[in-house]
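Let us practice reading a record.
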Amino acid sequence: IYCFKPKLIIMKKQMILYVFSLMSITAISQSKWFISFETGYGFGGPLGSIEKNMEKSNLNQHSPAIDFFGLVFNGSDYPKKTAGIPTLLKVGKRLKEGRSVYIEAGVSNRGEVVGFQNIGSYGNTIRVNYLVGQFTAGYQYSFAKSRSKVGWGPSLFLLQYKDDYKALSHHNYSSFVPGISAMTRVPMGKEKHLLGVELVAELNAAPPAKMKEIQKTSYTLDYNGSRSNYTSTLKASQVNMLHGMVGLALSVRSKSKK
């Protein structure tokens, strides 16, 4: 009997979630509210600025090759950068035909940059993982003879970054920056259905954000037990906060045009 209790609890929770979701979608379809989940290709933002600062901080060196029992593995060139995928949630309400207000929140830009300095026995690696949080309150306008929409509004951006997040002892940093956001949306097909897909493009502008100095120290021990420290430093800098996204939005909306 006890073996079935966890399964029954899980089934009850899933049923409650399903009923709640169904009620929410039904309520949206009968009201002036709309919700959309957006994702796509992100561009701009702090990624390029961090990469350039790595180069200025001598973290752009080639890692040494590794000889493993005669097998030689070549080193890598640094810095290395990787862009992440933005994800945003938008909730809005139609005021009248062609006019809406909305709030938008989520991660509008993210990425990782890794730098290396060939110092000491094994070298130092500094890894910066960051994301840009966005909160926007905006106004959306729909063109009378077109299905396209445009929107704009003030935004608040939060730059959060970590140094060497894979290490046991890493540090978290954050910086707030005010800005402005603009977007355009084009529904793929007529808006006669509750669920729909839209093409979306967003552009966010804000002054540069400050990043603090980040240090990484390694050490070696000689035969006498004496310790030698080797410190690499990513200099404090300002990073670009002009960024945007081009992608798709999955929308839940009323059948009336917003």
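A brief commentary: Confidence is low (pLDDT under 50) at residues 1-5, 17-30.
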